[in-house]
Design a protein that fits this description.
This protein is of the alpha+beta class and 201 residues long. The protein has a domain at 92-192: OB fold (Dihydrolipoamide Acetyltransferase, E2P). It has helices spanning 12-29, 45-68, 132-149, 180-186; strands at residues 92-93, 102-105, 108-111, 114-118, 121-122, 155-157, 169-175, 178-179, 191-192. Strand 7 and strand 8 form a beta hairpin.
Length: 201
């Protein structure tokens, strides 16, 4: 009966196994240590990209949204800013001569010692009307202007020239961004000013 000496390779299979184990050991000796896992969080270039994208969206995002849906556009542009109505007085009537805080006719009034002509309308004459109908309509427009001027704070806006040939201050009178002159036009008590007077008779 034969006994195998296990300390030495005794067969071809054992020699192959020994060679394979030796090769595996040599290959394993050259391995780099496994890199340790990063702890949670983001660092490096990804953070820079995220910051840049956030800044771009914050700066240009509202404009891009406004192009997609115009209703999202902010109403804080200069064209949308309304003047603050900060002027007011207790207006009476002053049909002739100078005055302080009084209505002369449907498109002329005195305010704080200055004479103003409403720049965007023309109303019938009350001083020397050409016919009875003009005089009556002029009286109605005068009374209505006095009511409107006393209805609350208003603004005086320059539109075109500062003064007319008579030295009156040319202004558009507004309240809440709406022209008081346009209200008189809508009520049939004035016409829009087109640069010259037209007969009322």
């Amino acid at each position: 009966m034969k006994y195998w000496n296990k300390s030495r390779p005794s067969s071809r299979q054992d020699r192959i196994e020994q060679a394979w184990l030796a090769e595996a050991r040599r290959a394993g000796a050259g391995r780099l240590p496994r890199p340790s896992r990063r702890r949670g969080g983001i660092s490096g270039p990804p953070i820079v990209y995220i910051v840049c994208i956030t800044l771009l969206l914050g700066w240009y995002g509202p404009q891009w949204l406004a192009k997609v849906d115009p209703s999202l556009r902010k109403a804080d542009t200069p064209s949308a800013i309304l003047p603050t109505d900060g002027l007011s007085a207790d207006f009476g009537f002053c049909h002739r001569g100078g005055g302080t805080d009084c209505v002369v006719d449907g498109d002329t009034f005195w305010f704080r010692g200055e004479k103003y002509r409403i720049a965007d309308i023309d109303t019938p004459e009350t001083h020397g009307p050409r016919c009875e109908a003009e005089g009556a309509l002029g009286a109605r427009s005068t009374q209505r202007l006095q009511v409107l001027m006393n209805a609350g704070a208003f603004s005086l806006e320059i539109e075109g020239r500062d003064t007319d040939r008579y030295g009156r201050n040319l202004r558009v009178v507004t309240r809440g961004g709406q022209s008081i002159g346009e209200q008189l036009v809508a009520e049939g008590l004035a016409r829009r000013w087109d640069g010259r007077r037209h007969p009322w008779c």
